[in-house]
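Today's session is about reading a structure prediction critically. Students often jump straight to the picture, but the first step is always the sequence itself: look for stretches that repeat, for charged clusters, for runs of hydrophobic residues. Only then move on to the predicted structure, which in these notes is written as discrete structure tokens rather than atom positions. Here is the chain we will use throughout the hour.
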Amino acid sequence: MGFHVLFYVPNVIGYIRILLVLIAWILYSDPGSFVPLYVLSIILDGVDGWAARRLQQTSRFGAWLDVVIDNVGRGMLWNMLYDVSSDSRVGLAGVFNGVVCICVQPQCQRCPMEELVHGEPGLSACSDGKRCGAS
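Below is the predicted structure for this chain, in token form.
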């Protein structure tokens, strides 16, 4: 690998993504800053792959860098999810349950750990993100 590969456009986009993810991590307590930075990083994830193919600047280093940045971003989100859940009575299991029940349920149904998550028995989660009345 020559040093010129380090300056391929897709790799430069990758370096920008690293900065965006790290700055977003630092600013995670401010959703107004975190969300746009992280979303921009996600958008650039698609742009760097497109640029690599379009400009014929694919490389093993670029493929490795892309995976590393994705894993750092994913690790950051898991870290933040744990931090949020450890500060409340819900806990990490409750957060996972909430994500599964809200995002995966095809219709309003009772979630197994609803009482832990919401503090009230009989509430359900809908696939559209709204909470339903008694089941």
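Discussion point for the tutorial: The radius of gyration is 20 Å.
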